[in-house]
Description:
Distance between the termini: 57 Å
CATH architecture of the largest domain: 2-Layer Sandwich
Shape: globular
Mean pLDDT: 96
CATH topology of the largest domain: Nucleotidyltransferase, domain 5
CATH superfamily of the largest domain: ATPase, nucleotide binding domain
Strand order of the largest sheet: 15-16-14-13-17-18-19
Structural class: alpha/beta
Low-confidence stretches: none
Number of strands: 19
CATH class of the largest domain: Alpha Beta
Strand content: 15-25%
Amino acid sequence: MSEKNVLAIDIGASSGKAFLGSFDGERISVNEVHRFENTPVKKGKILYWDLDSLFGEIKRGIEKAAKLHGFKSVGIDTWGVDFGLLSEDGELLDNPVHYRDERTRGMVDKVCAQFGGRTEFYKLTGIQIMELNTVFQLYSILLNNPELLKKAYTMLLMPDLFNYLLTGAKRAEISISSTTQLLEPHTRQWNIDIIKKLGIPERIFPEIVPAGSIAGNMTDKICRELDITPKSVISVASHDTASAVAGIPAMEDDFLFISCGTWSLLGTVLDKPVITGKSLGCNLTNEVGYDNKTRFLKNIVGLWIIQEARRQFKSQGKMYSYNDMEMLARECKPFACFIDPDAPEFFTPGDIIEKVRRFCKKTGQYVPDTDGEIVRCIYESIAMKYNFAMRQVIDCTGKNFDRIYLAGGGVKDTFLCGMTASATGKEVLAGPAEATALGNIITQLIANGEIKDLSEAHKLLSRSFDFAVYEPARHGEWAGKYPEFLRIIN
């Protein structure tokens, strides 16, 4: 067993995986050792994450990796914005609420009004204003369940909460903290002025630490329970997109990325945030990445809509695989209709097929009838939205890009990868599929002294993994239909 191995636990919005990362001095390899579902639960009217189940699966992943291979450290990355609240004695006060819960409805306007509107609030944070952001979740608690905040002494975002459950350490890793819309964008510290003005208790915000910090060692209790020797827990770039971007072996200084999964994140990496009237108009966000870089990007509802469609087809007795859905879509006429993937109706689960039809009818388009037409409409709309967001990033940064690096689970969707190249007119380099886990792994290897820095890590990754290349074969057709897409999203 190699104690130089590291364990990366990557928990996305719909599933989680544990990967053993190995480095032999020349190449990095990754081996999946555990996989599990991440399914929210509804209790009453509230949608929660199943924390006990998730932590149980994390422990199973640790146990399996320790028995199979051995490892030196573990790092956990998750989706952004959600959190748990701890009491003064460190007990969890309630299960973390899911970001798709409806408790934040109307909170954006209520919060922004206290700062002179959306423009002024954006200037304070540089973060894309989205109803799901932590600041709006906290303000909803303040208004609707103030007793909970009175009892709370610590807020821990999901990866920090899991680290706490393993080590007892209460810290806030910088990349996940930046998704809250509660950081000052230049100092990268909690924005106390916002916190005070909203009336949120200052005490709940823990110390912010950089990605790659040592959170601590697993507690004796955890080690006894899992029958393992003590392992260190590293606060990796714990927002999954931050890890995904770190795991893209781009050799250019300026590159465009799409982290493609349940959500799609399209953007670039900058030295400093871009907070202008133009970036506000585009609703682009400045999140923190590894090495204190800025991830300047757009959040786009991604393959969630395809996943929802498949779930609905299944409920109707149509047991389509994703490949089946793609084949149905390929048989249909292109560019018959579009949706805006980021329209509010596509954010919540349920009845996605009828939502697509209603959107098309409302916007005066052809209303898709067959299953294949529904799927093709969704795919083409996501690719068009990538083109839209890419143009915004280029406009706000003044940079241009020859290609797009597409990473994450979406690289397996060749249909979408090809559409992305054609829609944007850019060469698409797809891979690696497990970029998030690789970013997690290389952060640990750097922290453990096995690799010098991110530049060296990217050279190693480029030797270790291949890209699939997609050329923009039909860009003229897509460009001709782009004005129609613009009409329905504006």
